[in-house]
Task: structure prediction
Amino acid sequence: MARHPELLIPASSLEVLKTAVIFGADAVYIGGEAFGLRAKAKNFSMEEMREGIHFAHEHDVKVYVTVNILAHNDDLPGVREYLEELKHIGPDAFIIADPAIFELAKEICPEIERHISTQANNTNYGTYQFWWKQGAKRVVSARELSLKEIKEIRQNIPDEMEIESFIHGAMCISYSGRCLLSNYFTGRDANQGACTHPCRWKYAVVEETRPGEYMPVYENERGTYIFNSKDLCMIEHIPELIDAGIDSLKIEGRMKTALYVATVARTYRKALDDYKKDPELYLKNMPWYLDQISNCTYRQFTTGFYFGKPDENTQIYDSNTYVREYTYLGIIGGERDGMYRIEQRNKFSAGETIEIMKPNGDNIEVVVKRIVDEDGNEQESAPHPKQVLYVDLDGKADEYDILRKKEES
Result:
């Protein structure tokens, strides 16, 4: 019987975790303030982690905590303390790359599942078998694997062992994310959680005997793939992912906003549910998925390594080469006197038409009738980020709905 995979969504903060849960995640992954590979993401304090795990569990959603740095000697005492604290908070799993941290987790929190990070370069079934014997429940496949290889891994590992694979988001240009560019250019170690994303910068090549002559490195339909990665998108290939035997479909993006997370979670949730109900329904709704997913990126999409190594024929979807920008305005909180509470994220004004984005896939256009501050003072517009406001809309919104504004391009 085909496995119906889990949808695993990243969360950079408590607000984004709640959004991911409401908008369709089966599981979320988060980083604490230490020992994760996104030190620059907002990350969670222990208190926020406790609250986030409680919220997720109330909605039958799992939470995985990344402890995936490659540790140096002087990291290890801190890792031990950190795991001892996490033991009391009770996440569903740790995502780990380093064997030393794996052993500590096994000793300190044997009851919490251990998952092996993509950083550990898991490229063959022998590696999966090795980690299974060590007590890992799940291994995240290296991004360099094809679906054919993943299917072979599935056929050669225990049935109850799980495969997790990235299916959407930024593709790291370095082997399974072990990038040295960041360390070299900025002194910030990608493998210690401080990646500065130099793969997104613009590059030129200089030949030794021709100093000062800059040859730009850029992408066109024939390459290159080295310096500036496209974003992975597998929304059109849910059947192949399921057929390969993947248990967890992972979205990249622990640095992303609530609007991005809501958009991607909602789209993949609907695609997975539609496919489960009826493969024909999934095909019929494909234009909607592609339209939604193109709302939240500037970058061209690729299928990565899943259908063989990327070359000059790598698939590019033209549907997202234009930018149709949506601006994130805030998340609906409570209600007061028929007005909705939000913590404002970007400017909007009374009289403007905005959208309520709902978890079920609806986007409802509404007019902002009034904006008042916490003391009930009328405001023409909402210019101050993070200000708590109450808005009167000519439409019904529910808690955790997202407000967004379509920018005219």
The radius of gyration is 22 Å. The chain has eleven helices and 20 strands. Residues 301 and 317 are 6 Å apart (CA to CA). The mean pLDDT is 85.
